[in-house]
Amino acid sequence: MLLSPTVQVCLDDGYPIFVMRGFIKPEISPCTAIENEIDVSVLEILSALSLEERLVRHQRAFECVQELQRAHLELYERSESTSSIPTRK
Amino acid sequence: MKDLNQLLRFLLESRLDFVLVGGLAGVVHGSSQVTQDLDICLLIKAEVVEELRRLLAPLHPKHRMTPLKLSFLTEPREISSIKNLYLDTDLGPLDIVSEVKGVGNCERVKGCAVGVRLFGFSCKVISLDDLIAAKSAMGRAKDKAALIELLAIKQKFQKE
Question: Where are the alpha helices (DSSP H) in B4-139?
Fold first, then answer.
């Protein structure tokens, strides 16, 4: 799959916690691509956390997503610079 | 590093009278969706804009949606027409809205908001029902995904 509409981010404790949509290639990330599903077990995990813990974990996922987007952009720019577009003279 | 929690804490410290709405409110309610900005609902009027400019100055706020990324500290000069502000700050994107689509104006949102303690401060958060109404009204793909989760969270509450 080239572009995944949804990405599930696994934080370092192994729990798949946050899901995001965006143009991220799953092959460059430690993520699992999923399609329009909700994971009830994730909601169970989150409901057991305090409100601040939820926000702290969200921030970690947010940083992870930013990192992924940066990596994706670099990959895209690299592929753009190496691809040749045929032009008509 | 962008840090939405630091941005939220900064706003809470300021004692600004706002309601947390949008994706981060969803996270507080138990959603697993990542959001990339902080949304607050605030009654936007001239004195509030002046207060926001004074308050946000250390975070170098800029208008995110303008091509030139104009500074919020100086633009716009005419503030009577401002309804929403989409800013970028040193701590992350901050959206300030005067009403929530599908719910109503700030007073309406505030009237049903829930009070919680976050980072040692009291914080008003849009109610789960209002957030569901807002996500239903928005209708974007990411809102639909969030809506499914929020409905599942509501169902879980009702069972307990």
Answer: 4-13, 22-29, 46-56, 106-112, 128-138
pLDDT tens digits along B5-50 = 999 999 999 989 999 999 999 999 998 888 889 999 999 988 999 9
B chain contacts of residue A9, beta-carbon cutoff 8 Å: 34
Under 8 Å between Cβ of A3 and A25: yes
Are the Cβ atoms of A5 and B152 closer than 8 angstroms? no
Peptide bond preceding B76: is omega within 30 degrees of 0, i.e. cis? yes
The interface predicted TM-score of the complex, written ipTM, equals 0.88
- In chain A, the percentage of residues whose pLDDT exceeds 90 is 4
pTM of the predicted model as reported, rounded to 2 decimal places: 0.83
- Which residue type sits at B22? G
Radius of gyration, alpha carbons of chain A: 17
Residues of A in contact with B5 (CB under 8 A): 55-56, 58-59
Render A14-55 in DSSP notation, one character per residue: S-EEEEEEEEE-GGGTTEEE--S---HHHHHHHHTS-HHHHH
CB atoms closer than 10 angstroms to residue B21:
27
